[in-house]
Design goal:
A two-stranded antiparallel ribbon has the order 1-2. It has a domain at 26-81. The chain has 103 residues and is mainly α. The protein contains 5 helices and 2 strands; from the N terminus they run αβαααβα. It has helices at 11-14, 29-48, 52-59, 63-70, 84-102; strands spanning 27-28, 78-79.
Length: 103
């Protein structure tokens, strides 16, 4: 199995009205590599200013190719920041306060 295989939280699955709020807390390493590659190519472009190959590479989204390269070696991990516990605490306060203020 791959991808997001969790069951949805909805009125259809629970039988009652639902408001679900999702806060992303993880990211695939392929996304990080793709973003880092974009930044690296931009830096090279700024220095070279005329490299057609880099210009074409920058225009293309390389996520799928990066994911294909990382998957066979099990390097396409799902990662989270080291301060995730603090981020979760902050986000739960923000969401709770938003709900309380709106009601």
């Amino acid at each position: 199995m791959c991808g997001n295989t969790r069951k949805e939280i909805s009125e259809k699955t629970l039988g009652i009205p639902v408001i679900a709020i999702g806060i992303p807390t993880v990211v695939e390493s392929a996304v990080l590599v793709n973003d880092a590659l974009d930044l690296f190519i931009k830096k090279l472009q700024d220095e070279a200013r005329s490299n057609d190959y880099l210009n074409k590479l920058k225009e293309k989204d390389n996520y799928e190719e990066i994911k294909e390269a990382l998957n066979p070696a099990d390097y396409n991990m799902i990662v989270t920041p080291k301060e995730i516990d603090e981020l979760i605490d902050n986000m739960k306060e923000i969401v709770a306060n938003g709900i309380n203020y709106s009601l």
